[in-house]
Amino acid sequence: MSTANATVPERLFGWLDERFGVQKLVDWAKHKEVPVGGHSMFWYYLGGTTLFFFTMQIVSGALLLMYYQAGETTSYESIRYITTKVPFGWLVRSIHCWGAHLMTVSLVVHMFSTMFLKAYRRPRELTWVVGFCLFGVVLGFGFSGYLLPWNELAFFATSVGTDSVKSVPFVGEWMLEVMRGGPDVTINTLYRFFALHVVILPLVTVGLIGVHLAFIQVQGMAPAMKQQTPDRPGLKFFPDFMMRDALIWLCCMIVLAVLVFQLPYGPGVPGIDWELGKKANPLAPAYPGIKPEWYFLWIYQLLKEFPPHLFGMEGPQAALILVNVLMGTWALVPFLDRKSRAGKPSPMFTDLAVAALIFLSYLTLKAWDIGGHLPAGEPDPKATAWVCSLIVLGVSASITIMRMIAYKARWFILSMAALLQVVLNGLAGLDYLIAGAIALAVAVVGVLALGDRLERGEAI
Amino acid sequence: MSETDGPLIAPNRRGFLNVLLGVSLVGWGASILYPVLRYLRPLSETATGPLKLTPEEVAKIEKEHFVIARSGTRKAIVFDVNGELRALDAKCTHEGCTVQYVPGDSLILCACHNGKYDLDGRVLSGPPPRPLATWVATRDGDAVTITRETV
Fold first, then answer.
1. Contact check, Cβ <8 Å, B39/A86
2. Structure pTM?
3. Long-range CB contacts (< 8 A, 24+ apart) of A422-426?
């Protein structure tokens, strides 16, 4: 390009290139390709959308920090000041709250799509593990941010949430006190959660995102298990994929804007609601209907399903062990799934993801008390279990039929076992844990007896 | 030349579309920037009414000959000149430091850049560009009230 005819951006680019060799970076970006043809491109954008929402959280969080004052007499008051007095303060807080939920939704869908597509398989095991850590960090963000307005709901939800830590063997009490800054939830807890929310977790997140993205840059995005047209050239990352990315980010922004303007204080569903309500009073008794955010509801419900004592342990302790075993298994999926590691279809893990969805949905729906109420106005557990199991059954049946037709799936042992628990608990009225034990036994016997035979003809 | 019609029109159409895109981008950016700028500007505290000094502040005048009192976002220096109470803006008009009363020299001093004012707030020496705004101090028994003089 001759310098005389160059436009201003071209000249600026030339100036930078002369000094920093930017052209090399552009050439490298142009060579990078995103696999095409194996499955919908949509799944490749979800990491980007999560990152977009995280960026929105950083920006809106920084803005909130300019007025928020952590303290016993200032936390609640400063949030009230932001939402009622500061111009567009309600908007900034609403963006932060909606953004948090949308980021979690985007992350969960990203994680499940990675699971279904087996994108975690060799050589991308560590990308999955780092992604799982990021999931944990996002849950930490939600949990620590929930307390910061210092209102009644946040106070009691944090009391319950942190209390379960004490059941960790040997170090439980110590962990509880470190977490709370004392034996109870006080303003010291808020100071600790505030430090965690605005300094520690953001630093950890930026580091983990850096590692996650570096892995993806080095290894490229995972191609589909069964590329229908292996020779098909990929989509150029720069500028083709990036332009699409930008367009999807714009769509995310529009969705966020619509939600923020239509429902500035959330849809009012327990766990997706940020009405400020009353100021926290550590001496006031708890009231019914205290619930954590929606992504913790399954743990909340699990704690309710466990009896006071089980196998010589306290109920919450046993529940915590179960949650940790499940989360640990999920984190180690790439190392457990030997079939996909060898590049072979691995329907058992596809079905494991469906089973996980059934398990989580049923508990979450139950925690929402969807179903009937007793004459006194309290939720009726039996009616709730009945209605929730019918919803889960209906949706699962449709998904199973879709899997059979669209993906020619034949491997349903784990998802059927998860459904069996739902039926036994919800429709037959069996205790949740007994139903779970029966379902687990059926799953183990089923996998041992039929697991390998069902795998023929499965694609992923 | 009919063949050149297309290429002649095309850049114009492209240019028009680019202008349209540019304008909508600027509009979009402005719609994001405006709330952020409004949000960042703090609300002004409009406490301009009379300010009653606390007993501690009154005691301080008696002990140290002056006190700095705050009314909303403004600060006033209230000082005792041979039994007569006077009050001035406490913010130096040079770089905004807080001034002090020097009873021995009968002047108001800003120690930051050695700005000196007389007891009516007029600049005596140093860099301050404007006099200090005057307040009215009234004593009723032990109670002292100051009010900013409206200009």
1. yes
2. 0.87
3. A422/A358, A422/A362, A422/A388, A422/A389, A422/A392, A422/A393, A423/A389, A423/A393, A425/A385, A425/A389, A426/A362, A426/A385, A426/A386, A426/A388, A426/A389, A426/A390, A426/A392
